[in-house]
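Hi, does anyone understand the following?
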Amino acid sequence: MPINPSFNRIIAENYENYLGPIFNDVYAKDLTRRLASHKINSILETACGTGQVTRLLRKIFPETRIVSTDLNPGMIEMAKKVVSENDKIEWHNANAEELPYDSSTFDAVICQFGLMFVPDKQKAVNEAFRVLKNGGRFIFNTWDSLEINNISKMANDTVNTFFKDNPPDFFRVPFSMHDSNEIEKLLQNSGFSNITVENVLFTGHADSADDAVKALISGTPVYIAICERDEKMLPDIQQSLHKRIESEFGTSSLKIPLSAWVAEGVK
């Protein structure tokens, strides 16, 4: 079936309202905290999504130039609705593999859970290195394996039971960069020094099992994959996942164990 453009809006809204509180908020605070003690006049954010890191950066750096980019126009449009115009963020649609900025432009480059989706990861890391000033810092995070992040594995397994002959592979992508040695090599190959790759464990939160289902099914591109196969299956998939989540985490005030890698390098 053809993909309705409104799907981008639906995903972006659920990403912001439901997926963020579970997966992104605690790690966004962690990433921005790591920059807080440094004097930074300009920041480039890649894969900014709906601006969950962006708004924290503006609070920490009220006078700093912040350029936030994403490849998906729907995410940028949602971010503009959430982040105040008074915050003076420069929003651009941009490909992390081919950044439209001069070399040696930024004091920091930051990326939350975006590098996993880039086809040529080395090229994207090279680009981060290129646009940084000497002494500038690149900081990003990636998810640990799908098997370790249990709630996402539940979602993956649930969806795939409905499409055994043609299972969506979306959930494999965000959890594909969980080898710390490979992450370190990407930074080394680009020329970064003072490299650290740290496993960081946090707890995500959802108000209800319903919210968790909305996050995992309607707040990610798996929504598109399901609708491409059979949109009528959505209610059954959501109900099945709800039962699994409720059994494991309860019906309200869910506390969800999360595991990710945080990497840093200096140009």
In short: The chain is about 45% helix and 25% strand. Strands lie at 42-46, 65-70, 90-93, 106-112, 132-143, 193-208, 252-266. The chain has one domain: 6-266.
